[in-house]
Design a protein that fits this description.
Length: 99
């Protein structure tokens, strides 16, 4: 579940980064929706780096930082759950045998 949520967050941020970099029209409904949704995910990291704009293309370094930090957070949460309930060898063998 955690990896799925991370995938959604990373995908939203990646599309935001690419659309900004390519100068997508923020007036279109889809792009506006994407910027609104991803803006709330990006908010804690917004002022880390200045935004660089050249001829309509915008480079948001803070988006890349947010993507990296969300991966680290998800990785930490997954490992925390594994500490609470470690997987034993016989549990793995049961799952593999059932496949």
């Amino acid at each position: 579940m955690i990896w799925y949520v991370l995938g959604v967050i990373e995908t939203l941020l990646l599309f935001r980064f690419i659309f900004k970099l390519l100068g997508a029209n923020p007036g279109t409904p889809f792009v506006r929706f994407l910027y609104t949704i991803s803006g709330s995910i990006l908010a804690p990291f917004k002022a880390i780096f200045p935004t660089t704009a050249v001829e309509g293309s915008i480079f948001e370094g803070s988006t890349l930082v947010a993507m990296a930090i969300y991966v680290v957070i998800a990785y930490g949460i997954v490992h925390l759950f594994q500490l609470v309930k470690p997987v034993k060898k016989d549990e793995v063998e049961q799952v593999v045998d059932n496949l």
